[in-house]
């Protein structure tokens, strides 16, 4: 039976998988095979991010010659810049209905999370163009999340993109050769070994649906990745840079040519020590045999590789010298292509955060009886770029009163990360600055 027919048959008669049923377990096994078929692509993408490129792996060695391998990782450089630009500043939240409690609870119930969680999530999204985030409740009853790379997991979805089940394949720290498989369904989390034998009692899933967010940067997935765009340029640059480095190193092994004379090999060490060469014939010549390398051609080729990589990645080279009196507007205009690219990446990241907030609200409604609606929450991203706060302040001072709210105005400043908390600080300071009369003195007429 085809995989699509099996899915239609199974999900047509019930909403969630029961992996105690051999027929339904067979479906999961087929999907696990699909995951393994694509996993090698994502492994290679991750290799390139770590600098383990084909240029370094397949660099041709020449016997008895210099064989330096020079690794210059532009893929990592570009991805780190984009991560820093988009989520270098912490994500903040606001309520569309001005519910301050929901914003406070988001910060409180995620306070135990790793500070690098969102930046790591964005990093893997840019490396693979796909990433997963699973949600669970730990032993302390805290809402938690774990990032799953596409090398470690696979979500099987329906036509609308909703996850029907999620497969997480992993190895523990003690048995690095053994693979374990967790399968997340709407009702339970099943625990298997690599041969799909159950090794533990299924864990109940409190959320009532597959607790996973699927992050997609683009519908074309790895075909529309930074890796796919500049892989060839990265390999060519490293290969040519290694070649020229070895050419320079090989000058140490240059050959000395004696023409019209013979040299006693026993005297070579003595001549080398004294720095003197003796030729008995006046027409004899002694010279080095060296290569005539066109350094301009080589430098132009390397520069062309670098420039093309920057252009395709939509980045600018900050090492290039710029005019000293370049205005802030002119500097910002140079970043327009990168800003446009990062805005699209930000939207992909925000889709994950939206679903995360939905599961957080589910957790708070079930465990804390809060009654929150995730649609009331708005995630705010602040680009990690220099912002002219002085110009912002001057603009606001010249804006007629009643045009811009104080809440919106606070959000324009780069140093204010939480508008709600900042507003409360202002209220507290205003209350403390008011005069406090002694009521006893007022009653006795002494006030």
UniProtKB/TrEMBL annotation:
InterPro entries: Portal_protein_SPP1_Gp6-like
Ranges of Basic and acidic residues composition bias in the record: 427-439
UniProt superkingdom: Bacteria
Matching Pfam families: SPP1_portal
Annotated spans, Disordered: 427-447
Protein name, per record: Phage portal protein, SPP1 Gp6
